[in-house]
Amino acid sequence: MTRVVIQPSYGLPRFRRHWAQTLDRTVPFTDGQYAAALDGRELADLRALHPCGEAHFWGATAVHDRRMAQLGTGDVVLLTGRKHVLAVGEVGLVLRNPAFARALWDPEPGVCTWDNVYSLLALAHSRIPYETVWALPGFNPGDNFMGLRLLDDTRAATVLAGLGITTGTAGTRFAVGAATA
Asked: Considering the entire predicted model, what is its pTM?
């Protein structure tokens, strides 16, 4: 079963900076400080999933370690902000590597940093209003999707079908329904 995470990602100014650094562009993870922060296995796994040596990345704090440990290749993340799903991604590699996270996002001193990082095999920028998600069975109007939320299997299947999301690992290609993207 493909798992689905809803993750706020655009509200705070530092998250918008992070978005610009790793979602608006790909990161050459085989270069310099990025490669130096990865161990040999992590670098090999990233290269296997992203042979071009570049990928989009996102992350989560240590508070979310247990949820992040449940994610794997082919799972789906809905990246939210401004009362919209701003992007939909297919998870590549999930890492618990604070040094790599610091290399990606260079956090300000004293700011809670991300320990968990995941690459994205595919990323589709979107502008799906929360109302579209709220209209799906099992969701509530007015829910602003605060905090990283790992959906149960029923809600995950509802989101995938309701938003027309298919993944390259579960199907022939990654796609988000044209009517919602």
From this structure: 0.93
